[in-house]
Amino acid sequence: MRMLEPETSREMPWANGRGKTIEIATDSSQLGDAWTWRLSIADLPQRAEFSRFPAIDRHIACLDGEGMRLQRTGRWIDVPTMGDAISFTGEESITGEPIGLGVRDVNWFLRRDRWTGGMRVTGMTSMTGMTGMTGMTGMTSKHGATIHAALVVIHAVGHAKPLRVASDQQTLMLHAGCTIVASGSVTIEPHDQHDAHDAHDHTKLIIAWANPTSIPSPATSQSAE
Questions:
Q1: Tell me, what's the pLDDT at 36?
Q2: 170, 105: one domain
């Protein structure tokens, strides 16, 4: 289990030049290197066509702003602000449109021949919905949740209150803007147990997970959104 501080994030333009993204976590060592998974947050100031990512599965949710929608196969669909992310293949033609100002989305990219998984945006008071998410197993308690997957990436957004994350007899404190990368059985609990039932707690978490596909192959280099 390792902690990523906010200063480790890397800003880059979209591959098609129509926006910018902040890379939160990835398995590449340097900007531009090959990767098989990546978590990023992108601004969406105006309607824009998304970049194509052959051989990549994408998961997207709206993180900030009033909302956003995607044009996919000729119809518009709303992007969730909480709960399970929308999934689509990187080969698809997708257009994103913000609803209002200050819209940002979070993206979980997985190389299809290496990983399969999903992503959820949740708060401490809504973690009961963690159980039964596609591609991973989990359980909840009155104080938090436990996730089981080969790869688990947890990012605390904005003004999130401190959280205690435990895995393999190691415990780390997760603060706002920080990210934890872990594997196996990962437990997330509030540092202060009273926060688990605080209806006014606006802590927001991005929880992404993945398990290996059956036939792995070498990673290939990919650019931004």
A1: 97
A2: no
